[in-house]
Amino acid sequence: MHRGIYEAASGMIVQETNLDVVTNNLANVDTAGFKKRVSANSDFSALMDRIEKVSEDGETKITTILPADMPFKGRAIIGSFALATVFSEDVTDTSPGVVKSTESPLDMAIDGPGFFAVANGNGDIYYTRMGNFIPDENGNIVSTNGMTLQGEGGAISIGNARKVEVNRTGQVIADGEVVGRVAVFNFENPTYLRQAANNLLEPTERSGGADPVADVKIWSGMLEASNVSVVEEMVRMIEAQRVYEGASKALMTHDEQTTKLITSFSRG
Known about the structure:
Layout (H helix, E strand, L loop, with lengths): L1 H26 L9 E7 H5 L1 E5 L5 E5 L20 E8 L6 E3 L6 E3 L4 E5 L5 E4 L4 E3 L5 E3 L4 E4 L2 E2 L8 E3 L4 E4 L2 E5 L2 E3 L7 E3 L3 E3 L8 E2 L5 E3 L1 E3 L5 H38 L1
Helix pairs in contact: 1-3
């Protein structure tokens, strides 16, 4: 009976996490270049059926075995019913958003896969599809949160230029002179990029390192909108709430049955 309590409680915890993901997506529906997150769940036993074995050549390798074959000393597994559902991971949906015209020369949208690279004051590099850039007091092109846009040779400075434009290949032209070229990077598995603050992404071991995109295509005077669909996220929110309510009722039912069982045995 306690297995049912574990199942119901874990289901409630998972739906709380799913709601957090949906809420974050909805909060960024109007954020330029934002990429929504999609959550995935798994049963607890599926995450526990991996053990490390040292092979004859001395290397440690991950081996997948059935839960029933795992070496639990002095314990026997009854049935194949998973003890709990757990939050497995959430990944980035890299599908493009709708591109809208802004007529601002430093607004950019990437045509195809890839990400802009921006650097903070400490030189840390982050990646984003957010393309609304402005010049700072030093004439460098920066994002609206002050991160410096990276070109092929580092920061791109337009100085005090009166007329600035970005051509299709990413070249930045200030008063008729080419002053730099916007660098675009992509990853082997961009869905595993980790979300950082301010609509920024950072690479992980699973995403792989940043690789420069050779054939850069930029739309100038345009911005890529968020790829969040309000309707889809609202459906996911309702589903999560309904599942949470169902798991909550199941938990209360199991708790009541446990109380009755304890009371019956105590009287005997």
